[in-house]
Amino acid sequence: MYQSVFTNRREFIKKMAVLSAMTAAAGMFPGIIFAEEQEKGIPDGANLDWKKAPCRFCGVGCGVLIGTENGKAIAVKGDPKSPVNKGLCCVKGYHSIMAMYGKDRLKKPLVKKNGRYVETSMKEALDLVASKMQETIKEHGKDAVSIYGSGQWTIPDGYVASKLFKGCIGTNNVEANARLCMATAVTGFLSSFGLDEPMGCYEDIDYADTFVLWGNNMAEMHPVLFSRLLDQRLKRGVKIIDFATRTTRTSMAADKTIIFNPQTDLAVANAICYEIINNGWMNTAFVEEHCNFSKGLTNMGYGLEDHYKFTDRPEAISFEEYKAFLEDYTPEKVSGLSGVSVKDIKYLAAHFGDPNKKVMSLWCMGMNQHSRGTWINNLVYNIHLLTGKISSPGNSPFSLTGQPSACGTVREVGTLTHKLPHGVVANKEHREFAAKIWDVPVENIDPKPTYHTVEMFRALDRGDIRFMWIQVTNPMVTMPKLKRYRDGAKKEGRFIVVSDVYPTPTTDIADVILPSAMWVEREGLYGNSERRTQYFEQMLEPPGEALSDTVQLIEVAKRMGFEKQFYYKDETHIEEIYSEYRRHHEGKKHNMAPLEVLKNQPGAMWPYVDGKETKWRFNAKYDPACTNGKDFHFYGKKDGRAVIWQRPYEPAAEEPDADYPFWLGTGRVVEHWHTGSMTRRIPVLHQAMPHAYVELHPEDAERMQIRTGDMVKLTTRRGEISLPASVNQRGVPAPRQVFVPFFDEQMLINDITLDSFCPISKEPDYKKCAVKVEKA
């Protein structure tokens, strides 16, 4: 597959395969390749030009060095100057450059004519896209066109998409796939603190005494960061607590694993708060000075209907009312519901409550892809606020992201229907500010949000949306209840444009396929989980007629008559676009580092003020935006106080019953990244994990006489799928639960998942639905 690139490099590939085997055997640091091993993989006698970039894959934002020779990427290694990974790489990062050289790389635009794809020029394809958008707007109105992007968009990609659709066309039909993975983190931060994104940073790992992983298989999902936890345990004897619904590689490396029943993390978190208060562990001075108490609605629905009404009206309550509410969440009451012993609930609470221990909570999809995702985020913040363990080195509630720029391009740029780069569309001052920078009439920016992701695809199905441009994402693998949305996209009268680097199930539904430049084949910026903005330059020429997504959008904008708004002097536009984007975030609360700074170092965290990055927000000792004269200032709220929320336990949207007696959960594996459209084209990774599977508990497998490799049929109310069994292999679910990774486009587990979502964040719950399990 890669001979054209790695001619005379067979030894190099052999070395990489050996390194992968070494990695699998490295039990203490699962999925990690060390610097000295990376050096062994560099071809002998190579004269390489090394340049820095953030890794193309997950939201950790590792710095890598890419070695190029004769216009090809030949080698990659961890950047020792990066404070994120300090020279380490995971297996995906180490093999990342190979993802650019699959034999089926898209190089020419394709237009569907009479049911078949025909090659055309980029000019003709972009002309068609622009004319179809204009035609759709004329016939059906501005809200009949939409764009669906990604946390893999670069910051310039997302920025120009938002500017074109929200500022020029005047529709808020802008969404990104981070709605499926990170929207809950956003609403959790906003409701508790009034501002999005973590107040801490990765450096917290160097100070914390205890790490609590909330439903987070960090060893496989964020292996470089997990290696930093393990390193601290070797150096300082820190504790790692795995709080999860299944046993994973993280469990094997943790000091203690606590298994809970799905959805009951809500109850356990409240029980921890009960213990903190009733044992006198609350930091009373901090709470009285810096916190308010509030409650919201509980009858909020699960997002299952096409049309529903929701308003979360907060209501102030007293500390005594909150304390009385927690009486329903004693460890004894919660133990029976959650399956967690009273002893283990008290064990968790004691770590948070010990004034001599610094605690870092870490989570990802386990909490965020949750029908009450905003609530569980709020509840973890409650624990840290009650103990005052927040916004200081080592005391950090920290949400990890799954994509390289889910924070930078979706949360910071604001590529969600309700957002603007610096605020929300519903706020008149925010609209006026954006309109001035974008050079458009303020009336162009609609004050009313339209569709979040699930509703956007429902609108496409209904016909309210007629045109959709999909960039850098693969929704025909990732959408929950997938068959409905795949069928909807194929209906008559829909026009779908897909920009990507490889054929996928999403390009299969496209009317126009635009080949995109990938990663270092163009210039760009990503923003990682710790608010770190990272720049990368163009190192390679893209194949064929492939263009960056930024340039594709600008070219279509110009064809639609928006030359003035998209007139940029420099060839790649990136410097001018980033300078324009920075204007949205000026000020001590969110200032972005200048491009020259980002070019000269491995990124910088915002707020970047007076030449310094802010590592711990809301803490006057570290954050220059604090102005209330107190030690802490939660300036996202008007009164400068964070909110401790009264959030009850509620059952999942769909629970096992007599007909569907198991829980079904989905997730990822270390070898593949999300839908695998890139990593499955890397031979070493594909061979290591060639297909999906279904994990069963050994007792369930024995009862049904199922062995590893046997085919198992999973049936939900939405359909059925058959996969090979995995028993006592990498992960082990609890009894009456099964787990399936979603990377395999030949085994589309999302055909049978539920499209229930958190009614505040609108993020789907991929972790819980009812399923029947049978030997096929």
UniProtKB/TrEMBL annotation:
Amino-acid positions noted as binding substrate in the UniProt annotation, renumbered to this chain: F742
Catalytic activity, reaction form: 2 Fe(II)-[cytochrome] + nitrate + 2 H(+) = 2 Fe(III)-[cytochrome] + nitrite + H2O
Cofactor: binding comment: Binds 1 molybdenum-bis(molybdopterin guanine dinucleotide) (Mo-bis-MGD) cofactor per subunit. Binds 1 [4Fe-4S] cluster.
Alphabetized SUPFAM superfamilies for the sequence: ADC-like, Formate dehydrogenase/DMSO reductase, domains 1-3
Main location: secreted
Cofactor(s) in the UniProt record: Mo-bis(molybdopterin guanine dinucleotide); [4Fe-4S] cluster
Range of residues in the leader sequence: 1-35
Record's keyword annotation contains Iron-sulfur: yes
Residues annotated as domain 4Fe-4S Mo/W bis-MGD-type: 48-104
Gene Ontology biological process terms from the UniProt entry: cellular respiration; Mo-molybdopterin cofactor biosynthetic process; nitrate assimilation
Pfam family, one: Molydop_binding
InterPro entries associated with the record: Asp_de-COase-like_dom_sf, CT_Nitrate-R-NapA-like, MoPterin_dinucl-bd_dom, Mopterin_OxRdtase, Mopterin_OxRdtase_4Fe-4S_dom, MopterinOxRdtase_cofactor_BS, Periplasm_NO3_reductase_lsu, Prok_molybdopt-oxidoreductase
Keyword annotations from UniProtKB, A to Z: 4Fe-4S, Electron transport, Iron, Iron-sulfur, Metal-binding, Molybdenum, Nitrate assimilation, Oxidoreductase, Periplasm, Signal, Transport
Gene Ontology MF annotations: 4 iron, 4 sulfur cluster binding; electron transfer activity; iron ion binding; molybdenum ion binding; molybdopterin cofactor binding; nitrate reductase (cytochrome) activity
PTM characteristics: Predicted to be exported by the Tat system. The position of the signal peptide cleavage has not been experimentally proven.
Catalytic activity, EC: 1.9.6.1
Record-linked HAMAP family: Nitrate_reduct_NapA
Cited function: Catalytic subunit of the nitrate reductase complex NapAB. Receives electrons from NapB and catalyzes the reduction of nitrate to nitrite. Catalytic subunit of the periplasmic nitrate reductase complex NapAB. Receives electrons from NapB and catalyzes the reduction of nitrate to nitrite.
Quaternary structure (record): Component of the nitrate reductase NapAB complex composed of NapA and NapB.
Family per similarity comment: Belongs to the prokaryotic molybdopterin-containing oxidoreductase family. NasA/NapA/NarB subfamily.
The protein's name in its UniProt record: Nitrate reductase
Organism per entry: Poritiphilus flavus
Gene that specifies this protein: napA
